[in-house]
Amino acid sequence: MKPSTDLHTMNRRHFLQSAGGLALAGASGVAFGKETAAQAIRFPKGKAEHCVHIWLGGGAAQVDTWDPKRLGDAKAKKSGSYYPSIETAVPGVKVCEHLKQCAKSMEYITAVRTVNHDVIDEHAAASNRMHTGRNVSGTTVYPSLGSIVAAERGAVAEGVPAYVVIGYPNFSRGPGFLGSKAGFLYLLDTEAGPAGLKRPDSIGGSRQSRREALLARMRDSARNVRGEAAIAGYDDALEESLRLSGPKFMEVFDLKSEKGDLRNSYGGEFGQRCLLARRLIQRGVRFIEVSHNMNFVNGTGWDTHNAGQLKQHLLIQELDKAMATMIADLKAHGLLDKTLIVVNTEFGRPSAFDGGGGRGHQGSAFSVVLAGGGLKHQGAWGVTDDECKKAVQDPCGVPDLFATVLADLGIDPRKELFDGDRPVPITDQGTPLVKLLG
Questions:
Q1: 308: which DSSP letter?
Q2: Please, which pLDDT band fits residue 234 given cuts at 50, 70 and 90?
Q3: What's the N-to-C CA distance of the chain in angstroms?
Q4: What is the mean pLDDT of residues 310-329?
Q5: Taking the CB of residue 258, how many other CB atoms lie within 10 A of it?
Q6: Staple partner for 271: which of 49, 205, 220, 322, CB 3.0–4.6 Å?
Q7: Three-state secondary-structure class, residue 294
Q8: Is the pLDDT at 138 greater than 90, yes or no?
Q9: Between 123-132 and 145-153, two packed helices, what is the crossing angle to 10 degrees?
């Protein structure tokens, strides 16, 4: 199959014929797709009910993590991996030596090694692409993956948000043309709790009641002046925020109620975010983004230019510890097959070293990792060349990646959303990796 970047140039009929020839029907007969005049395009429906989207902001080096090559030498400017590779639980699949815990759980993991895009290798533009599946447009603000899932599936349970971001919010994570109902609740760290929902200690119950009564009078006044429609959206948001700020939902953020050994197994703040993600899943949240953007222990985070390369292993070890523990924890709670873990980043890194001993930016080939979600895992998908610069087998365009995630979450990857009256395909002509869906 050609990468989806080639599909952009196809006309609609050519695309439908090509995709239809490659599609599979699920063994149970439950599949997406309607009959067309020519033939049906059918994709298997996945098992996942939740998604944890781990964001490695800065651009994680695939050659130093999930797609190792021969050893290089930064000082001698010899291209290659910075760390030795190790075997995994899947024969023939190797990863960096600092992913030793995940290596043992590789039967539940697939590193999609051939993800690619043509976005300029600049952080903001590439981050937007890997959150929305689209390039920045001057006329359309596309929704993020999290907002699409929230709009299509909603929360799993009543009284909780569909979409939570643990990390810094920005427009690329937002709902775009889907509107505020597909937006997210966010928190910056696990100690502080959700922004705007945690009541200050100085505000007691009686004082809160007086505030709500005052606010109700102001809403009535605004309704009389502006009309019901003018404040309907505000009322909905207010009612939800008051509900979420109550003790029933807020107790999910009390990580101290978990056993100490488990909390320690997850590790530091990033690990605690992953633990919180599991608790949010148990409460019924559909989509959680967990950002690994704190404690730049190597000086640069995943943006490993220059000296940031020297201590990159500390970040990798932090990811390894938290991710492996989350896989085991979800499995212990019977949630691993129901929860798709996506480890995403805006682009990868070339195998060549830059003048300062670090690595530059590269969107032509990089790794995005899928775990759990009831997928038919195989350790690795696709093959890159010896320099890790391009896909030589089973390329995966960003639309294909998004289509795979959506299909696993029970969302038709061919359906259309609407920006006002204008239909917008939910992915940019993406085709799921049907072998993973089984």
A1: G
A2: low
A3: 17
A4: 96
A5: 16
A6: 322
A7: coil
A8: no
A9: 20
3-state class (DSSP) for residue 220: helix
Give every CB contact of residue 179 below 8 A, 6+ residues apart in sequence: none
Classify burial at 282, counting beta carbons within 10 Å of its beta carbon; exposed 0-12, middle 13-18, buried 19 or more: middle
Q: What is the Cα–Cα distance from 319 to 51, expressed in whole angstroms? A: 17
Amino acid at 73: D
Backbone angles phi, psi at 371, to 5 degrees: -145, 150
CB distance 248 to 165 below 8 Å: no
pLDDT tens-digit readout, 240-251:
665 666 677 889
Q: Rounded distance, CA 350 to CA 113, Å?
A: 13
Q: Look-up: residue for tokens 């298997």?
A: 44
pLDDT for 20 equals: 41
Of 99, 48, 146, 115, the C-alpha closest to 372 is: 48
Q: Assign 426 to helix, strand or coil.
A: coil
Q: Report CA-CA distances (Å) from 357 to 74, 75, 353.
A: 5, 7, 5
Report the alpha-carbon angle 354-359-363, nearest 5: 125
Q: How confident is the model at residue 235 (pLDDT cuts 50, 70, 90)?
A: low
Are 406 and 426 in contact by the 8 Å Cβ rule? The answer is: yes
Q: Which pTM does this prediction carry? A: 0.86
Residue 358 · residue 309 · CB < 8 Å: yes
DSSP for 221-273, written as a single string: HHHHHH-HHHHHHHHHHHHHHHHHTSHHHHGGG-GGGS-HHHHHHH-SHHHHH
Average pLDDT, the chain: 87
Q: What is the 3-state secondary structure (H, E, C) of 129-154?
A: HHHHCCCCCCCCCCCCHHHHHHHHHC
pLDDT (tens digit, 9 = 90+) per residue, 332-380? 999 999 999 999 999 999 999 988 888 999 999 999 999 999 999 999 9
DSSP per position, 29-95: S-EE--B-SS-B--EE----SEEEEEE-TT---GGGTTS--SB-BTTTTB-SBSS-EEE-SSTT-EE
> How far is it, in rounded angstroms, from Cα 187 to Cα 184?
10
Sequence-distant (≥ 6) Cβ neighbours of residue 195 within 8 angstroms: 186, 187, 188
Q: What is the pLDDT of residues 72-111, one digit of tens each?
A: 999 899 999 999 999 999 999 999 999 999 999 999 999 9
- DSSP of 200-214: PTT--HHHHHHHHHH
